[in-house]
Write a structure and sequence with these properties.
Belongs to the Rieske iron-sulfur protein family. Keywords: 2Fe-2S, Disulfide bond, Iron, Iron-sulfur, Membrane, Metal-binding, Transmembrane, Transmembrane helix. Residues 188-256 form the Rieske domain. The chain crosses the membrane at residues 505-532. 34% of the residues lie in helices and 13% in strands. By secondary structure, the protein is of the alpha+beta class. The protein folds into 5 domains: 1-68, no CATH class; 136-257, Rieske [2Fe-2S] iron-sulphur domain (Rieske Iron-sulfur Protein, 3-layer Sandwich), CATH 2.102.10.10; 271-454, no CATH class; 542-736 and 820-904, Rossmann fold, CATH 3.40.50; 737-819, no CATH class. The strands form 5 sheets. Strands 14-22-21-20-19-17-18-16-15 form a 9-stranded mixed β-sheet, with helices on both faces. A 4-stranded antiparallel β-sheet has the order 5-6-7-8, with no helix packed on it. Helix 19 (705-715) links the parallel strand 19 and strand 20 (725-731). Helix 3 (87-124) crosses helix 14 (515-532) and helix 15 (548-557) crosses helix 28.
Length: 917
């Protein structure tokens, strides 16, 4: 059997061997096929290859034509794909696509994770209906008389009306018998001047309009229900008055709504300090008898199958009749009946119902025992005097009921009730509360306090050990028992879906987390690892230098060049993070060195300033560092202050140039600010330093734009430079403004975003001094258009509208060529060191080729390339929090010492021991 390659490239002289069942029909070849070029794997068959035929072999033989000419589609291809060897362009495009894909995936994953995390976190907190039941406190002093103000309470609008004296008199004079829902004004208000109602129409749940309607109260525009200033229905289809929620007035100007949720299940009063409970008086016993007799006569109160059970109007009417006969509020009567009914059902389940004084009176409720169960948990605070176990379980049926003030019971306590699962059916929407708060009267409280200790759970969990009340809850016991019995968490949550949250619940959530959520987390982590380059390793700096003696001196004075640069572990390997953090925070624990500001008046009317800092500790050698900051920076920039302080500690005098316009405290006095290649300002500072300190040795240090300026200054022939300049150091400059600007206009490596930030920074400087820079005289002299300057979205647009016109350049390209420092390399006659980071997001790698070519062809020139560091970042050390002194600061101090040694003899070099600062 021949290979697939052989079958694909059979030559014309193949012989077919027929089988015995079917003769072979051979085609005649018109000519011998000549192989023009071998295939990619160079495995064309040679010699007389034969095709063996069997019973199932097809007799047809296909011949491969390898002599066909392939058309040349080069003229139709794009310029960036014609040459396959252009690795830089293709790499940039692949990197841009990778970042775009990673960014889009990060946004989508973050959006998906947001919903999942929100759902997960929400499951730990109380439900929305519980939070809506929390109490609110309202300051009444801000509500003017005669106005109605709306608040949100329990998810509903709450109307608070400050009634006038005329409204109070009018509502009190209304004949109660003529009302559809009879209620006097005194029954609806606690204080006559304040009306508090829930702003929901009792017809179909609409929200009425305040100070409207035929009766001056509220008007529902949906179906025309009119309410008076007491919230009573006077006209329209609404059957009932507006609901009055429970509220109190703790002081003259404060309103508090009650029934607040007690999330932590703690009694509001200390049980150990309770006052003795007085016995129920005869009036209460008589009222209980009348309530029970009333319920016996009206089966619709407790029988869900009764035809009037859902007829709320009919039920309210009957309850009002009973309340009127007892001369008590309707809410209090309902509350009292619920208390009697709940206690009866609890005693039926837990035993001891025969000792209940109303046992025989309430035995008609036996067939109507509710199916829902709940646990009342009374948690004692740490400072309780009684250390007995107070965490008892009671079963009861309950529904959320508003707390009502009444004088019938002396002590009322608030308990929180945690609902558990139903026995079989799902709970109704009304009952679906994870935590329900209600007022508990003395009878219910007595059940809690006098209950004998017993097992807290169902028989399934009867063997769980008791738990200390101060440290654990009922739910913790359930979890602990399930863990000891090696049962699954799912069993617990299947039986108790509303169980409270604790640490084990978190374990359960994590172990049962959905695949989508775990996938989203994995994707986000992968994206972070990709962006932060966490898998990168520390590398030694790469050094280019022709002069071996110069290089040896650098290695001797600066051993940091032989050591790997170790960025901050979590984010330091990302050039973007280094750059962003440098622009936001600069340096950590930045000092503020003390110096003096020197003012210079220039020939064109500009005011130039630089800050002069003296060394903290004096050394034998007198060295001054002439520092030129980056674009829009000054001596007040954080990274400049940190380096200056570090240099002062090593005995160096520092002079920092303040770019014209960069300082808000220094007024611009001419119609120009700094530019990318204007070295006259830096030269004036150098000349002033030379006059002040004629015996000092000056070393120029430039950061970013400042690196371009000091390189251009050292290479300019027409500029007369003092002999005291012994060298220069340039950090993170781009060398070629023409090509660099083109790169910044593209979105590769997010350079367009950085360009936008730099443009806005330059525009802010111009607009900050617009009174001078954009005065009428300046606009006329330089033919400026303020609207074009403000509307500029990129630096080339801003330079076209402002910079080139002010400095008399015909085009921006001419300005950029004049500003590019690489055009002045050949004229540099001083020792110079260049430092750049390979992952600098502002400077692509191909812009670094000119400086590499320069240093390998000139003496006393060196180029240091660091794999990481970003643009002027170079943070090092730590996992998240970097060291206060960066790798760049340490290296610059060493480079300064090396340049001084190159200039002088080794016996005169400065001591390397810094001052203790």
């Amino acid at each position: 059997m021949i290979s697939a390659v052989s079958r694909a490239y059979l030559r014309a002289n193949v012989q077919a061997v027929p089988n015995s069942l079917k003769p072979a029909v051979l085609g005649t070849a018109q000519g011998k096929k000549v192989v023009v070029a071998p295939c990619t794997d160079k495995s064309l068959p040679v010699g007389n290859t034969r095709a063996t035929m069997g019973l199932q072999t097809i007799h047809q033989v296909r011949l491969a034509h390898s002599d066909l000419e392939v058309p040349d589609f080069t003229p139709y291809r794009r310029e960036n794909v014609k040459n396959a060897n252009r690795r830089n362009d293709s790499a940039e495009q692949r990197k841009a696509f990778s970042y775009m894909l990673v960014g889009a995936t990060a946004v989508g994953s973050a959006y998906a994770a947001k919903g999942l995390v929100n759902t997960f976190v929400s499951s730990m907190s109380a439900s929305a209906d519980v939070l809506a039941m929390a109490k609110i406190e309202i300051k009444l002093g801000d509500i003017p008389e005669g106005k109605s103000v709306t608040f949100k309470w329990r998810g509903k609008p709450l109307f608070i009306r400050h009634r006038t004296g005329a409204e109070i008199a009018t509502e009190r004079n209304v004949a109660v018998a003529t009302l559809r829902d009879p209620q006097s004004d005194d029954q609806r208000v606690t204080k006559p001047e304040w009306l508090v109602v829930i702003g929901v129409c009792t017809h179909l749940g609409c929200v009425p309009i305040a100070n409207a309607g035929d009766f001056g109260g509220y008007y529902c525009p949906c179906h025309g229900s009119h309410y008076d200033a007491s919230g009573r229905i006077r006209k329209g289809p609404a059957p009932l008055n507006l609901e009055v929620p429970a509220h109190t007035f703790p002081d003259e100007g404060t309103l508090v709504h009650k029934s607040a949720v007690n999330i932590h299940c703690v009694l509001l009063k200390k049980i150990g300090n309770m006052a003795p409970r007085r016995k129920l008086n005869k009036n209460i016993l008589l009222m209980d008898k009348q309530i029970i007799d009333f319920v016996k006569e009206h089966q619709f109160v407790y029988d869900r199958s009764h035809e009037n059970f859902n007829n709320n109007i009919y039920k309210e009417d009957k309850w009002k009749q009973l309340a009127d006969s007892l001369d008590e509020p309707v809410e209090l009567i309902k509350k009292r009946w619920k208390t009697l009914k709940d206690r009866y059902f609890r005693l039926m389940k837990n035993g001891g119902v025969e000792n209940y004084k109303y046992c025989h009176d309430l035995n008609f409720l036996g067939p109507y025992e509710p199916r829902r169960r709940s646990i009342i948990r009374c948690k004692k605070e740490e400072n309780y005097e009684d250390n007995s176990q107070m965490d008892e379980s009671l079963d009861s049926s309950h529904s959320p009921v508003d707390a009502v003030d009444n004088d019938m019971f002396e002590n009322n306590y608030t308990l929180s009730i945690t609902s558990l699962a139903t026995d079989d059916a799902k709970p109704t929407k009304l009952e679906n509360h994870s935590i329900v708060c209600e007022e508990v009267d003395e009878i219910a409280l007595e059940d809690v306090l006098q209950m004998q200790p017993k097992k807290r759970y169902a028989d399934t969990y009867a063997e769980s050990k008791p738990t200390k009340l101060e440290n654990e809850s009922v739910c913790s016991n359930l979890y602990e028992h399930l863990l000891q019995s090696q049962q699954n968490f799912a069993q617990l949550f299947a039986e108790f879906p509303y169980i409270a949250f604790d640490r084990q619940y978190l374990v359960y959530i994590v172990t049962t987390m959905s695949t989508a959520f775990l996938t989203a987390i994995a994707v986000i982590l992968c994206i972070l690892f990709r962006i932060l380059n966490v898998n990168s390793q520390p590398l030694k700096p790469s050094v280019w230098c022709l002069d071996q003696q110069f290089l040896d001196t650098l290695y001797k004075i600066a051993p940091v060049l032989k050591e790997p640069y170790v960025p901050t572990r979590l984010w330091g390997f990302s050039g973007h993070m280094q750059t962003v953090l440098h622009s936001i925070i600069g340096r950590v624990k930045c000092p503020w060195p003390l110096g003096e500001r020197v003012y210079l008046s220039l020939e064109d009317g500009s005011t130039l300033t630089y800050d002069l800092y003296q060394p903290i500790k004096e050394f034998e050698d007198d060295i001054t560092l002439a520092i030129c900051p980056g674009i829009g920076n000054s001596s007040e920039s954080v990274y400049i202050r940190t380096f200056v302080h570090y240099a002062q500690c090593h005995g160096y005098r520092c002079a920092v140039l303040n770019h014209i316009g960069a300082l808000g405290s220094v007024q611009v006095t001419a119609t120009r600010i700094f530019t990318y290649g204007h070295t006259e300002d830096f030269a004036d500072m150098i000349n002033n330093l030379h006059r002040k300190y004629p015996g000092t040795s000056i070393i120029t240090v430039g950061f970013s734009l400042g690196g371009n300026l000091i390189t251009k200054y050292l290479g300019e022939v027409q500029t007369k430079k003092p002999e005291s300049i012994i060298g220069g150091i340039s950090i993170c400059q781009g060398y070629n403004a023409v090509e660099g600007t083109k790169c910044l206009l593209n979105w590769q490596n997010f350079r367009r975003l950085y360009l936008y930030i730099m443009t806005e920074n330059m525009k802010s400087i111009i607009l900050k001094h617009r009174q001078v820079l954009l005065s009428d005289e300046s606009i006329q002299r330089h033919n400026l258009n303020e609207r074009e300057i403000i509307a500029a979205a990129t630096l080339p647009e801003l330079d076209e509208a402002y910079t080139r016109r002010v400095h008399n350049f015909s085009t921006t390209q001419e300005l950029y060529r004049w500003s590019s420092s690489e055009n002045y390399f050949d004229n540099i006659d001083k020792p110079i060191i260049f430092i750049n980071a390979k992952d600098d997001p502002l400077i692509p790698e191909f812009l670094l080729e000119p400086v590499k070519n320069f240093v390998v062809s000139h003496q006393q020139a060196c180029y240091i390339e660091v794999a990481h560091g970003g643009h002027l970042g170079f943070y090092e050390g730590g996992f998240i929090y970097p060291n206060p002194v960066t790798w760049l600061d340490r290296t610059l101090i060493a480079m300064i010492g090396a340049l001084f040694i190159v200039h002088t003899t080794p016996n005169k070099h400065k001591s390397g021991v810094p001052a203790q600062c």
